[in-house]
Each structure stands twice: as structure tokens, then as C-alpha cells.
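hey
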């Protein structure tokens, strides 16, 4: 007996719900360093594959980008010099995925997978400085830069508010709403398509910038040391400037160990070479070897 259309839709919905329930609330998908995860008063470099938790804070540096995948299928794209707090992750009894994103500064974009936006219910609130947006399956772009806070609707529907203004609905693509710091918000207006295209570039990964991505099979060997302390010194120096390396012990024929410092999860040989050039130029790391695992 066939499933029938309604039965098949029900099966798909159940499978999507089951996968969503088993997945972490948020996972780092890609990083264009420097970027850091701040948790429990500690700080470490942000890396693809990291599961993120409530009360975590993600920080990106100059020229950086990061992409965070949420359990509902949404992707949060971060530009350079961003500070964002992650809160209110959860799933309600009715299956609705919840999240609260607090963009302290910088540019971000939140976009939802075309397929899953119709299958997973979500209640996501984003605070961009002084502007708050309630989202129910959509695509938005926003920025808080110390002088102005605003959100721009790219697709879907949001409800936006400000402490000195009334709640407004944005229902048409390119509508934006915002306020200068210390001022009441302006009326909802339309942005020029060319301007929105320029804004969007500020949150997109840049080809050739040395991106690390979950599943990347290329790596850099940054050093190979006879003493673990030497490897730790390089590891700590890179971590301080936002690069997440790791130390790999290498057993030698005489039973002794050497310690290799590697930077992994790079998606292509070209990206690996470009990242090696960047580390040599900006951090003075010499003799970097590009390897495929």
C-alpha cells in the first residue's frame, strides 16, 4: 500500500523533527579566522564542528567571518569585528525551536534552508543593539556599529521593536528599520537593492581568505618540534590571535616523540596555501607544509 501524499509528508515531518531533536542547538560550520568562543570566563579559538551552548559568546576579529548552523536549519553568518551572545536555545513541547541572538556589535545575516523553513517551526528573536526582531522563518541582515542599529528584511516577515518606538511589521523585501544611538527609530523604509548587495558582502565568506570548514580535508603543518613546550608556545601564540591549531605527537623510530602543530579542516589545497601565506606574512610562521589527510 502506498503512503499517499499526506502520509509521505507526515513521514518527512517526523524524520526532520527527529533529526532536529537529536542535533546540538548550534554548531560552527565555517570560520575565516581570527575568531573566538567565549564560555565560562574562558576564551579559545573558534573552530568548525564546535557545538555551541546557551550563554556562549562568539567574537570575530578584523577581516574575519564565521557561519553558525542552528538546529532548525537556519544559518547565522557573522562579519568582522562581531560580538554576539547566544541564548534561549531550546525546543518547546510543541516542537518549536527557540533561540535568542544578542548582536552587541557588527554585521550579521540569518537565513534559513529553503527546504527546512517549511518543515521546522521556529521562534527566534534577534537583538541588534537597541533593535529587536522577532523571526518566524525568514532571511534578514542587520548591523550594530555604535552609531546606528538596524535590521533589513530580505525575505519573509519579521516584527521589529525599539524602546523608544512602537512595534512594526516588515513584510516586504528590502524594508529596513533602525535608529541612531540615543534616538527614536525612524519609519520603516526601503533600501536600495545595490546597497543591500554591498551589505551582504560583509557577512559572506571570502574565497581565498583561508577558510576552515567542517569536513575540510587539507591541513597545514606549522611546525615540528622535539620538545612539547616548543609546540605549546606556538599553539598558544596562534590561539591568542584567533587561530585554532592542535598538537599531534609523532612517535619516532627510536621511541622518542616529536610534536607537530597543525591547522586542519581546510576545504581545498588553494585555501590551504593562501592561509599558509597569510600566517607567514602576519604571524611570522615559517616553513609551513600543506598536507592532505
Amino acid at each position: 500500500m502506498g503512503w499517499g501524499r499526506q502520509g509521505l509528508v507526515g513521514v518527512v515531518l517526523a524524520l526532520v523533527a527527529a533529526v532536529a531533536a537529536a542535533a546540538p542547538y548550534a554548531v560552527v560550520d565555517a570560520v575565516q579566522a581570527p575568531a573566538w568562543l567565549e564560555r565560562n570566563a574562558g576564551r579559545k579559538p573558534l573552530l568548525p564542528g564546535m557545538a555551541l551552548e546557551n550563554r556562549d559568546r562568539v567574537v570575530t576579529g578584523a577581516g574575519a567571518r564565521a557561519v553558525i548552523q542552528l538546529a532548525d536549519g537556519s544559518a547565522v553568518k557573522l562579519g568582522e569585528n562581531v560580538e554576539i551572545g547566544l541564548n534561549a536555545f531550546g525546543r518547546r513541547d510543541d516542537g518549536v525551536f527557540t533561540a535568542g541572538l544578542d548582536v552587541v556589535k557588527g554585521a550579521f545575516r540569518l537565513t534559513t534552508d529553503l527546504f527546512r523553513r517549511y518543515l521546522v517551526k521556529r521562534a527566534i528573536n534577534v537583538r541588534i543593539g537597541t533593535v529587536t526582531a522577532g523571526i518566524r522563518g525568514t532571511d534578514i541582515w542587520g548591523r550594530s556599529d555604535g552609531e546606528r542599529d538596524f535590521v533589513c528584511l530580505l525575505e519573509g516577515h519579521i516584527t521589529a521593536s525599539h524602546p523608544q518606538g512602537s512595534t512594526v511589521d516588515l513584510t516586504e523585501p528590502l524594508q529596513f528599520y533602525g535608529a541612531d544611538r540615543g534616538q527614536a527609530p525612524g519609519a520603516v523604509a526601503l533600501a536600495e537593492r545595490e546597497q543591500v548587495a554591498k551589505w551582504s558582502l560583509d557577512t559572506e565568506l571570502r574565497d581565498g581568505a583561508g577558510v576552515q570548514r567542517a569536513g575540510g580535508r587539507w591541513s597545514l603543518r606549522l611546525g615540528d618540534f622535539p620538545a612539547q613546550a616548543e609546540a605549546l608556545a606556538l599553539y598558544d601564540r596562534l590561539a591568542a590571535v584567533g587561530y585554532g591549531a592542535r598538537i599531534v605527537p609523532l612517535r619516532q623510530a627510536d621511541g622518542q616523540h616529536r610534536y607537530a602543530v597543525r591547522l586542519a579542516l581546510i576545504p581545498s589545497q588553494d585555501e590551504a596555501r593562501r592561509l599558509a601565506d597569510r600566517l607567514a606574512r602576519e604571524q611570522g610562521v615559517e616553513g609551513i607544509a600543506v598536507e592532505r589527510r
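Helices lie at 5-22, 193-201, 228-240, 269-283. The two ends are 47 Å apart (CA to CA).
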